[in-house]
Amino acid sequence: MHNLKGFHTFSIPVNAFAVEEITTIPQLIACYEKTKALEKPFLFIGEGSDILFTDNFLGTVAVNKILGKEYHEDANYHYLTVAGGENWHQLVEWCVDKGIGGLENLALIPGCVGSAPIQNIGAYGVEVKDFLDQVKVLDLETQQLTTLTNQECQFGYRESIFKHDLKHHYIIVEVTFKLPKVWVPQVAYGELAALPPELKTPKGIFDKVCEIRSNKLPNPKVEGNAGSFFKNPIVSKSVFSVLQDRYPQIPHYPQPDGTVKLAAGWLIDQCQLKGYQIGGAKVHPNQALVLVNIGNATAGEVVALARYVREKVLIKFGVALEPEVRFIGNNGEVDASALIS
Question: Per-residue pLDDT tens for 86-132?
């Protein structure tokens, strides 16, 4: 058995049957075939920044270390084709250093490039789908590579085809980004709106986002965590109207389809749960959206804390929070929402 503590940012000491670091596609295929021959489950991860192992994993955990980056341009766009194992924040930083705008709002989001489309990661009014051109996917069963367009990825809020139809035995090996040369700053969200005009540049926004995230979010190397634990819930206009009557100051973000996105962190904070603790699992005292391992948490304690937070928000607001973090059990991903309901 291999300890997985160093392979996921919650740093909970669960075990796997085997762990293998993957640097090439042929190695990935061979690892999958070997695991399949042993009739063991197979899990492919990046930096483990969006997962919670709820138990020991009975199969092989393959860790994405496939690297590489290619750039070309035309009159209107920058094109970046990036291997799935590249670090996400380092990619954003590279773009900013090269004067390429678009991804700066997504600075300091942990994880790999290949994981970004799965969750359709987003922050400060920008989602990865806004600049994603296409994704190259490996079918481990057929060993065939397929390229999907942005539309074929079926992106939604923290959603994609990779969490549904392509959930099993499909691996993102490469992502191509299409970044317009006519750059438009996205600064309508939160503290970015207060930036002075001279800082509304890719570098200015990047620096501000890094500052905000560093101040609000705990370093997983110090306190184990997976970033935002819950999705920001989306409710109907009628539900929101009732909530706004009761809580006039409720933060809200109208959506194009008429629904309204709420701030999960604010809902949790209003339940006065900052600092609430079950065993070694704790609601972060500065950012209610983050659950942390203060050093000795078990997976069961994190799940129990998530369940408690969900229950309190549901009682107070009638809104059911859903985990953004993916839960991994003995044989693979399990229904996180069901586990904390």
Answer: 999 999 999 999 999 999 999 999 999 999 999 999 999 999 999 99
pTM of the model: 0.91
Q: Is 237 left (phi over 0), alpha (psi -120 to 50) or beta?
A: alpha
- Read off the amino acid at residue 331: N
Altogether, the residues listed in the chain come to a count of 341
Residues 6+ apart with CB under 8 A from 291: 225, 226, 229, 281, 282, 283, 284, 302, 305, 306, 309
Query: Are 296 and 282 a contacting pair, CB within 8 Å?
Result: no
Sheet holding 260-262, edge to edge: 234-235, 260-262, 252-254
Six token digits for residue 105: 């709002």
Q: Which pLDDT belongs to residue 272?
A: 98
Active site residues: 158, 228, 324
Q: pLDDT digit string (tens) for 292-330?
A: 999 889 999 999 999 999 999 999 999 999 999 999 999
Are 83 and 190 in contact, with CB atoms under 8 Å apart? no
Gap between the Cα atoms of 227 and 163, Å rounded: 19
In angstroms, the CA 245 to CA 247 distance is 6
Residue 108 to residue 120: CA distance in whole angstroms: 15
Beta bridge partners of 79: 72, 178
